[in-house]
Write a structure and sequence with these properties.
Keywords: Coiled coil. The protein is mainly alpha-helical. It is 62% helix and 6% strand. The protein is built from two helices and four strands; from the N terminus they run αββββα. The strands form two sheets. A two-stranded antiparallel ribbon has the order 1-2.
Length: 166
């Protein structure tokens, strides 16, 4: 009986030791899981904070985008209005000038001492130029255009030869 009791005591002791080992391992596992839970909570709080910040920034960007879009629409509306004004003004000017013919060179004045266009007196300081184009008139510096090696010509002859210059 004592041997049986000793073996039972040894078995109980061994079982107690194993239970303590299991309890200690479970406590360690529980501590590790609590630490993991704490880190997960901290990560969750950081993610929630980052999400709130991102949502706030998105709302701010949307508000800015809406304001910019409103400004652009207003600018487009203003530009369309201005375009209509300019078209009306162009039409009005076109109607005013519809009956006006293109100027033709006037005949050479009888007085060779006067400019054919502005009738300014040629003096010592005001040079006279012969129009090298259609009219062959004598014109002053103001009423003529330099044609380079072709000489000078009066403004009306120049405009007739170069209509895009007007």
């Amino acid at each position: 009986l004592p041997q049986r009791l000793a073996s039972l005591a040894a078995a109980a002791q061994e079982e107690t030791w194993q239970s303590r080992q299991q309890l200690q391992a479970q406590r360690q596992e529980m501590a590790r899981l609590q630490e993991e839970l704490s880190r997960a909570r901290q990560d969750g709080e950081r993610w929630a904070s980052a999400l709130q910040r991102a949502q706030r920034e998105a709302l701010e960007r949307e508000a800015t985008r809406g304001a910019e879009q409103a400004r652009q629409q207003e600018l487009i509306r203003d530009m369309k209005g201005r375009l209509l004004e300019l078209l009306r003004e162009k039409d009005a000017l076109w109607q005013k000038t519809e009956g006006i013919d293109t100027p033709t060179p006037s005949p050479v004045p009888r007085d060779p001492g006067l400019c054919a266009r502005c009738h300014k007196d040629f003096r010592l300081l005001s040079r006279r130029y012969n129009c090298s184009r259609l009219c062959q008139g004598k014109v002053c510096h103001t009423c003529s255009v330099d044609m380079g090696k072709h000489g000078r010509c009066c403004l009306i002859c120049y405009q007739q030869r170069h209509p895009q210059a007007t």
